[in-house]
Structures are given as structure tokens and as C-alpha cells.
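Chain entry —
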Amino acid sequence: IRGIKSRVSTPLGIALRGRFLVGSRPVSGDIVVRFVSCAAENGIDVFRLHDPLNDVSNLREAGAAITKAGGAFHAGLVYSPGRTDETDTLVEQARKLPELGATRVIVNDPTGALVPHRAKELVARIREVSELPVGFYVQGAAGVGLASAIAAVEAGADLVATAVYPLALALHRVSGESLAESLDGLGHTTGLDAANLWDAADVIDEFIGDEPIAPVAPRIAVRAAEYDLPAGLVAALEVHLRAHAAADRLLEVLEEVGRVRAEAGWPPLAAPIGQILASQALLHVLEARRYGTVIDEFRELVRGGYGATQEPIDATVGRAVDLLSPSAMPAEDPVTTEDVRQQAEGLAASEEELVLIAMFGTEAEELLRKIRARHSRDAVLVADDADAERAERIRELVKIVQESGVGGIEIEDEGMRVSVRRADEPGAFPSSPTVETGTGTQPTPERRATDGVVRVEAPMVGVFYRAANPGAPAFVDIGDIVVPGQTLCVLEAMKLFNELKAETAGSVRTIHVENAQPVEFGQLLFEIDPILAPPAV
């Protein structure tokens, strides 16, 4: 931020997800305030802030911090049509924004679902009830972004979020070049020189013009537009389905996302809520049963931990979540900076580094140590950088194979041979391990006792992690005594992490999976020798 600020006169802005800031879980008010303060001190002028559930009361702390720091508070309202078109709901939320200190309202359409005539109506009504300037942001594969942006301007919007053409093409955003030329032709004064924007596009094209970052495949864009979902979310779902040899079930998952969303009170599809709903729906399809497993983030959403949803939670789903939740699950308070101040002593050299550790824990600590090592020319870092460079080159090869449609690529350079093949090529990758089951039966995630040994099986597909963070101690080791409710491991699916806890006291006999390995539903993870409790009297 400081580097960019020193080179430009344009005000710098940052987009935040309310109490979630830039992550997938809400943080404490203390961290929100410190984050905003640090961002303002380092050069951020405009804070575009929205609550993923459109619960504007969750913006109060951040709004006060922005006002105190002298920044511009642009409050976002997410348009994501549910049972109704949601216009009335957004208008009512807009009435509350002036008292929070908002200096502008941003209509945020993350899926391209806001058609032009509806955009015109919504902008006009919000402008009237809030008496604030209104801006417009749209991103989505539906193809109506430019038309909706023009309609919003005609209704009084004086700010439209755009991207330089190469990025707009890749990210399904409104092109600044196209919008400026269109508005000028309609008699609106933009103050922009479209020729300069095209020059900027040429500069960016020099860096990314040959990179395989074209828009997502047409089949993904079509489904994203049809189901009013973010294109990136649909693409991520397809990747996970392909990893489990179930790419032909994409439509099932998209239909299930809609059902889960309705049962969860029709929350907007902005990140991270869209990812939470999609992860839960993905489990339903892959496990062939609904709500047999509930991810932690979905549990928090249903229980109101993230704020109020637009409509009530389905009673049956609420009951299922309660039944699948440990009865004595304690409510964990978000970590504050004071909680980590002593732990970070000697590592955090500034307020922003302290906030970084408070938000991201061990990952931030490792990053800061690498930065320190880089400045001290630590030799270990050279190897780390070499590994990172090789990993980046491999990722580039994977992108080329995905985008070009070729069957595979094999290269040899500097003693490293890499072969990348499409998943449907014979012999491309070994198949995932299978779980032997009886004829016609599905594996179940419940713990089964065999000769007195308790088997702990994966309740969901995902990636198995033995520790909370890289470098952290393992939750359990062979020979450890565990008690009911103790965390055994973490399973990750679509960047959401879910703890798997012991249901019985015992001693860990065997750990069947290596750290960071993918696991299937029902796959054996641990064997535990139970410790028999004395009979009750």
C-alpha cells in the first residue's frame, strides 16, 4: 500500500467483508478497529465495507473506526435474489446507513443477477431513502453488467466500479474503457479519457497477455449465469467434483446449493457465505445424504453466529444442526490482539504485524520469520525460494494444460522432470483409495468397534491435517490418551476447516493417514483403544 501510495494521486480503496475483514470467519471488534486504523495510516482513503448477510448492524464498529481515522466509509448492500427480488429488504437496510456514518451506499451485485431495469429502480430508491450518494458494483457471468451499470448511472449512481479491460475480461467485470465510451455517447460526462484507459490496458497486457488466465470455461460461465452464482464458486465446485471422479454431478450440486440456501434463510451469495453453502451442498451430493455431516461454518451460520439471515432458518435443518453438534460445545470468543501480544513479543515489530498474527496465527508467524530471514540473508530461505519457484512453474504448467485442451505436457529443466496430464488421460494420476464396503451399502462415518477397538472414520471428503497450522504440534500422536470432545484432526474442504473430535475416551493405537493427504468419506483415520469407565452407581 505504501509503495503504491507514493506513486499515484488517485485515492486508494480497500474492500472488506464487515467483521470478516478479508477472511472466512468473523474477528473481534478489537481487531476490526486496529485493522482499519493500520490501513488508514498506511494510505487507504476509501473503505468499501459490506456485511455478507446484509445485517448492517455488524458494520457499526468498523464504521466508527473509519470515521475516526478520517476515511470515506462506503457501505455496501449485497443484491442476491432469494424467494423475492430483495429490493424492499435492501431499501430498508439503506435507511440505517447514515446513522452508522456511511458517506456513500454501494449496490453490490456479486453474481450479475441484477438486470438493468431492476438496477435502475434499486439505485433510485436507495438514493431517495438514504439521501446519500450511490455507487454500483457488479461482477458475474450473466453478461448484463455493462447494461446494468449504464442503467444505474441513469438512475443517479455517480460511481461505478470497473476494471481495466484485460482484467474485466478475465473476471467478468465491467470494463472501464467500454463504460466510459458508452456513457460519453449517451451524453454523460465521465471526465475520463478512454484512450488513456486503453493505454493502461496495453501496459497490463504486456505482463499478463500470454498468461492462461482467460475466463472460465463456457460450461462454467453458462451454469453460473443460469443459477445466479459467482463463476469462481462454480469453477471451484467443478474442481472438487473432478478430484472425486464426479464431474458429471455438477448440476446436482448447483441444485443442492439452492436448496441449502433456502433452508438457511436465503443469505446472500457473497463471500464467504457462498462458499459455506456450496461446501455443505457438495457434502450432501458426495455423501448421498443430506445433513449427515455439518461443517463448522454452516453450523455457525444456522445458529446466528454470523448475524441475522433475511428469512427464518428452516426448523428441520436447525434441529438437525443441533443434534449433530456436541452438547457441551463451548462458544469460542474471537481472538484479540491482547491475546497474542505476549506470544508475538520479539516477532511483531509493528502494529500491523501484531494484527496480522492475531488474524492468521501460525501462518502469519511463519511469514514474518521468512521476511526476517530474507533480510538477514538466511541460507535456508534460498532453498525455500527455489521450492516456491518450482511450485509456481508447476502451477503454470497445470494452467496451460487446463486452458489449452492438450492431453499433457512433459518438460525437463535443471535436473527437474515434470509431467502434467489431464485427469481423463489414461495413467495420468493414480486413482483415489477406495473403501471396501458390503454389496449395495454406503460407508458411514460413524465409529465402529472391532474387537474392542474404536474406528474413527472420515465423516466427509476433504484433506486430512494433523495440526491446526503448519509447524504447530499435532493434535494427537500414537499412544496419546484422548477424552470425549478432544480434537483428533482437521478436515479441509473448499478452504473450510472442520475439527473431528473424539467421541470416547481411549488411547490412540494407529493413525492411518499422512498429514495433508486427501481422504474419502468413510475412510479409516484412527484406531483408538477405549478406556472403560467404572460402572455408574
In short: The chain has four domains: 2-208, 218-323, 386-431, 448-530.
